[in-house]
């Protein structure tokens, strides 16, 4: 029996099962089995396997990577060529783009790599079309732009989200607040710091037993679902911010546009007429959460043209040194920082000081 047939069987059983307290335990088990089968689909067992297909993975350049995901012919290539000036083959029939087309834009001093991924079809997570490779590239992005046709957005949005979820990509979510630690002995130690609506000790044990884990500490710090627990146990989930780009707004009325603007995480644009690109770029910048640090050589003015760009959460002075050169930290004595992260300008700081956007730094070596 093939993996796909097994998956279909489990999905059918889940659809048949009523959801209530008595069946929660059974559904949790089925979800865990499903997650395991999905993982086998993504990473086939053993063997050297076929090549990944030519020209798929693109070298990572710039400070952040943004992937365009969407069905064929929603205007991803038009959007890329108008944003970055890169010519990605554009035609009126479906599946024009067959491999990943990279482009780079400079925005607020940061270099952002844009990837035009081939169109996704339904069933990509089960290995149909070029889906598996497309989604594998999408996993490496810092931000995903789901490009939708404004005339048929909701159907597409649901399908694409379902495909990405099946590959372990979680959009606009935070990792679940669950502590999970394997042990050698001592059984399953289950603690919940707040009231749980779905999980209880029994369900948690059965889900872990499905993964052949019989000794572990589980701490639930928020009201979690079985899916959250499975995500933590699998440990290969990526949490990526996402913007829904509704293209072709030149085909709808102003009243409809006002309604669209109220939807969260959404930017309406027209790639063909280049409408509302500035709003899209601004929103991309907000979601990427990049921090710009300007350098200042001794006795000179700061260089405001080419900042060193760091990802949010890794903005200590040490990270800054490593970004420039890995040997720099060995010679590091202290740094002088001007900006919003210090109490007085300039302030003498050590390598653990965390900097904020648009700070100016001067390094002093030993």
TrEMBL record:
Gene Ontology cellular component terms for the protein in this record: cytoplasm; nucleus
Cellular localization per UniProt: Cytoplasm; Nucleus
Entry-linked SUPFAM superfamilies: P-loop containing nucleoside triphosphate hydrolases, TGS-like
Keyword Transcription: no
PROSITE patterns (alphabetical): G_OBG (PS51710), GTP1_OBG (PS00905), TGS (PS51880)
Sorted UniProt keywords: Cytoplasm, GTP-binding, Hydrolase, Magnesium, Metal-binding, Nucleotide-binding, Nucleus
Protein's recorded name: Developmentally-regulated GTP-binding protein 1
């Amino acid at each position: 029996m093939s993996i796909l047939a097994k998956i279909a069987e489990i999905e059918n059983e889940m659809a048949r099962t009523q959801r209530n307290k008595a069946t929660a335990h059974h559904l949790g088990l089925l979800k865990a089995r499903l997650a395991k089968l999905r993982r086998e689909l993504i990473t086939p067992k053993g063997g050297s396997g076929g090549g990944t297909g030519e020209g798929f993975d693109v070298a990572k350049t710039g400070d952040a990577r943004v992937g365009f995901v969407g069905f064929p012919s929603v205007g991803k290539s038009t959007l890329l060529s108008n944003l970055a000036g890169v010519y990605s083959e554009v035609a009126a029939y479906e599946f024009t783009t067959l491999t990943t087309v990279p482009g780079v834009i400079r925005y607020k001093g940061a270099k952002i790599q844009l990837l035009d991924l081939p169109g996704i079809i339904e069933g990509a997570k089960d290995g149909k079309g070029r889906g598996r490779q497309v989604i594998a590239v999408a996993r490496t992005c810092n931000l995903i732009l789901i490009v939708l046709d404004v005339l048929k957005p909701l159907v597409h949005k649901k399908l694409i989200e379902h495909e990405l979820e099946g590959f372990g990509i979680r959009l606009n979510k935070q990792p679940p607040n669950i502590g999970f630690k394997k042990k050698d002995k001592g059984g399953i130690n289950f603690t919940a710091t707040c009231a749980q609506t779905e999980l209880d000790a029994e369900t948690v044990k059965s889900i872990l037993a499905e993964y052949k884990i019989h000794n572990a500490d589980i701490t639930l710090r928020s009201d979690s679902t079985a899916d959250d627990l499975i995500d933590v146990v699998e440990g290969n989930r990526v949490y990526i911010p996402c913007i829904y780009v509704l293209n072709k707004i030149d085909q709808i009325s102003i009243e409809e546009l006002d309604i669209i603007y109220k939807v969260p995480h959404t930017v309406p644009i027209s790639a063909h007429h280049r409408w509302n690109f500035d709003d899209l770029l601004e929103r991309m910048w907000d979601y990427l959460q990049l921090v710009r640090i300007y350098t200042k050589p001794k006795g000179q003015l700061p260089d405001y043209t080419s900042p060193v760009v760091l990802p949010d959460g890794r903005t200590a002075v040490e990270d800054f040194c490593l970004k420039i050169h890995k040997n720099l930290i060995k010679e590091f004595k202290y740094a002088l920082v001007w900006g919003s992260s210090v109490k007085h300008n300039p302030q003498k700081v050590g390598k653990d000081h965390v900097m904020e956007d648009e700070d100016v730094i001067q390094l002093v070596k030993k």
